[in-house]
Amino acid sequence: MSALPEPRGLPLTIQARYIAICRVRGQLAVAAKLMAMGCSLELLLAGVGGQIGGLSGLGLGWLIAVSVEALFMARTVYAAVALPAREVQARLGTQGSSVSLSGLPESAAGPEPAEGEAED
User: Fold this and answer.
1) What are the backbone angles phi and psi of residue 13, rounded to the nearest 5°?
2) What gap in Å lies between CA 9 and CA 29, rounded to an integer?
3) Upper half-sphere CA count for residue 17 (Cβ side, 13 Å)
4) Which residue of 21, 23, 65, 120 pairs with 42 in a disulfide if CB–CB is 3.0 to 4.6 A?
5) Residue 51 contacts by C-beta under 8 Å, 6 or more apart in sequence?
6) Higher pLDDT, residue 68 or 1
């Protein structure tokens, strides 16, 4: 087993996150177009690489293609992951209130116990 990271891991991770983000945003048509172009690029570069360098060339051509695809998808993924905390709070409607570990605003967790009652 090698200590080096797998070279295809990052581009494929970006692709998977891009598709998920587009699904959440309702932009599957945009994602489908980009993925179709990327698939064509993968086939083209893998074929050219296979003709030039055999099996190693095929793998290298495919890796280059998925890396180029990931470059086009990375901006969308980065923007979704790097949302400032204030934007997230505004979108969740929790601005100005603290959020409990359950993810619900504390005001939504239920009524506060009356004076003299012990909390569980």
Assistant:
1) -65, -45
2) 25
3) 18
4) 65
5) 57
6) 68
Q: Is the dihedral of CA 55, 61, 34, 88 positive or negative?
A: positive
70: closest CA among 22, 24, 13? 13
Which pLDDT tens digit goes with each residue over 46-99? 999 999 999 999 999 999 999 999 999 999 998 888 766 567 667 776 655 554
Three state DSSP letters for 4-54: CCCCCHHHHHHHHHHHHHHHHHCCHHHHHHHHHHHHHHHHHHHHHHHHHHH
Kindly state the tokens that stand for 31.
């994602």
pLDDT of residue 14: 92
Q: Which two tokens stand for residue 49?
A: 């690489």
Beta bridge partners of 85: none
**pLDDT, position 63:** 93
- The answer to whether 69 and 15 have CB atoms below 8 angstroms apart is yes
